[in-house]
Write a structure and sequence with these properties.
With 601 residues, the protein is α/β, with parallel strands linked by helices. It is 35% helix and 16% strand. The chain starts with 9 loop residues before the first helix and ends with a helix.
């Protein structure tokens, strides 16, 4: 037991925690107000004033967690989220779950009551150490008065996918381990694991404010004006470049193989497909949906090509379409999953794919395209694209046309909401010659926290003049996270366009089997109320309440000009809601008609 005379004050312990975070590379911290976390707030204010990190203050812990998630996605760095005790910590669970499945290094720093108050009925006290269970890579509980530096370093290593081990003891307790790990031994070494969220639970005793002798921040705001971001590489000029050239020159058998690029596949998938002349079936958030091999409307073409496909190569995590799921489940098409390092979204032995870790082995599995194979796909894609554009070339906007126009209006990073928004882009967005950074919460593919995630992405992106982050999302997704619009006075506000597909409810279910039931009088009312969730919310009033610009769009000709213009020059908010009104009643018929015409062609 640590001797009482060696215990730190709460402010000193908090300063050590913040100093360790910054020393270990954390440059962005999202803070929620609270009493028990006050020592951390004062320490963060001092650190921000000194310019070593930036602090973003939010009042809603759920949105704060997703803002931190977005910052980490944009900067490729661990980002800390600081909360007080009690339900505030529980509010972070959705963001932690997403970070777990998307392998995002989110660092939860939760303030807590000291040990003597736990289990006594003390206000805002619960068993919050280890609260996130299997969703965190590491959970440590630091007693009040103990220097947290060593525990924070271990947690940050775990967030970056490095498991610290020594002798027979695992010094990186996963999920169930909520006690401070033992000190490292001379046999300590690092073992590669999967990046992801961690929790550092810090107990603080009164007093919770700095004493007269403690340093004080000179002002309430400061820190670096621009993020120290590691921007997403869309050039494909990565460490595998030399291997790609080896693949290009290799003597390989000819096969009718397709390359599937799921979420987070990166530009490497595009370069691999191009080197072997293979069709590239790339989801929007793969960041590989560009180049001469990319087949935009692959979803509606797979059925006609299925019988002739010989092999499937997978980069990233496919999540969007049932045709791709059926392709990967078909054992007549041997498939290989490229996993050069551990990933968070599957457990070894749980998939039938052949797991390959080397590009040269992957090339040998895939082979080079047979003569005419790519050309057939490209010709079919051109016909299907023409059919889609003809079907949506009406005066009234459709979700497909909206997604295509937003995709083409390349004004900076693009964030796609779950449900129909990302699926519309998957079907209608025409691959270009180069990519733009595209983000989506596909770890668990929920609609939760989309606005806050996008705000974090925008805050973590170094915007060039005239550039802004664009968010395409449905109205239900928008309303689910409407609190994410709130940014306090004096906080940084990034330039953003929030393009809302406003069809008065949830349209995605009409494209699924529920849509068929909705056509039957017996179920029509049930499907509309329980799945369609109709609403009549005034987005203009919401924009005014939160201080955003607002523009309504009802037809496609106006949308191009709106997207090109951006928020008004006089606007100080730098954010705008683009309310795009769409009728969802004909959505199921539209999709069925496109599929039928493509099949007939």
């Amino acid at each position: 037991m640590t001797a009482p005379e060696t215990l730190l004050t709460s402010f000193d312990a908090a300063c050590s925690a913040v100093r360790t975070l910054s020393d270990e590379g954390v440059r962005e911290v999202v803070l929620c107000p609270g009493s028990r976390s006050a020592p951390l707030a004062y320490a963060l204010a001092e650190a921000e004033q000194s310019g070593v990190l930036r602090v973003h203050v939010r009042i809603d812990e759920r949105d704060a967690g997703f803002t931190a998630l977005g910052l980490s996605l944009a900067t490729s760095r661990p980002v800390a989220i600081v909360t007080t005790s009690g339900t505030a910590v529980g509010e972070l669970l959705p963001a932690v779950m997403e970070a777990n499945h998307a392998a995002v290094p989110l660092v939860v720093v939760s303030a807590d009551r000291p040990a003597e108050l736990r289990g006594t009925g003390a206000n805002q006290t619960t068993r919050q150490a280890g609260l996130f269970g299997t969703h965190v890579r590491c959970s440590v509980d630091v007693e009040a008065g103990i220097d947290p530096a060593a525990d924070i370093r271990r947690a940050l290593l775990a967030s970056e996918g490095m498991t610290l081990t020594g002798g027979d003891a695992d010094l990186n307790p996963l999920a169930a381990g909520t006690n401070t790990p033992p000190p490292a031994t001379q046999h300590t070494h690092l073992q590669q694991s999967v990046r992801g969220p961690v929790q550092v639970n810090l107990a603080f005793r009164d007093p919770l404010v700095p004493g007269d002798e403690d340093a004080r921040p000179a002002s309430a705001a400061g820190g670096p004006d621009t993020p120290q971001a590691i921007q997403m590489d869309l050039t494909g000029q990565d460490a595998d470049g030399e291997l790609i050239e080896i693949v290009r020159a290799a003597d390989l058998p000819a096969r009718r193989t397709v390359v599937v690029a799921g979420h987070d596949a990166t530009a490497l998938a595009e370069r691999f497909a191009r080197a072997l002349g293979l069709p590239l079936l790339a989801e929007p958030s793969s960041n590989a949906r560009f180049g001469p091999q990319a087949i935009g409307p692959y979803r509606v073409l797979l059925e006609s090509f299925d019988a002739r496909i010989e092999r499937v190569v997978v980069f990233g995590r496919p999540t969007l379409s049932r045709p791709v799921a059926r392709l990967l489940a078909n054992r007549d098409h041997p498939s290989a999953l490229y996993v050069p390092e551990p990933v968070a979204w599957f457990e070894p032995g749980r998939r039938d794919d052949r797991v390959i870790t080397e590009l040269t082995e992957l090339a040998a599995f895939a082979g080079r395209a047979t003569e005419g194979w790519l050309g057939e796909w490209i010709a079919a894609a051109l016909r299907a694209t023409s059919i889609i554009q003809e079907a949506t070339a009406t005066e009234n906007l459709t979700g497909l046309e909206l997604a295509r126009l937003v995709w083409d209006a390349d004004t900076g990073p693009l964030v796609l909401g779950s449900s129909n928004a990302i699926r519309d882009a998957d079907l209608a967005a025409v691959p270009g010659t180069s990519g733009r950074p595209v983000y989506a919460n596909r770890g668990l593919a929920g609609i939760d926290g989309t606005l806050a995630t996008a705000t974090g992405i925008a805050l973590g992106t170094t915007a060039h003049p005239g550039e802004r982050t664009t968010v395409l999302l449905g109205d239900v997704t928008f309303l689910h996270d409407v609190g994410g619009l709130f940014v306090g006075s004096g906080e940084r506000v990034p330039p953003m366009d929030l393009v809302v597909l406003n069809d008065g409810g949830g349209a995605i279910f009409s494209t699924l089997e529920h849509g068929a039931l909705a056509e039957q009088p017996t179920y029509a009312g049930t499907v509309e109320r329980y799945f369609g969730t109709p609403h009549a919310v005034d987005l203009r009033a919401l924009a005014a309440a939160y201080g955003l610009d607002y523009v309504r769009v009802d037809e496609s000709r106006a949308l191009d000009a709106v997207l090109a213009a951006g928020p008004t020059a006089a606007s100080e908010t730098r954010r705008r809601i683009v309310d795009v009104r769409i009728d969802r009643t004909g959505l199921r018929a539209l999709h069925r008609g496109i599929i039928a015409r493509v099949a007939a062609g």
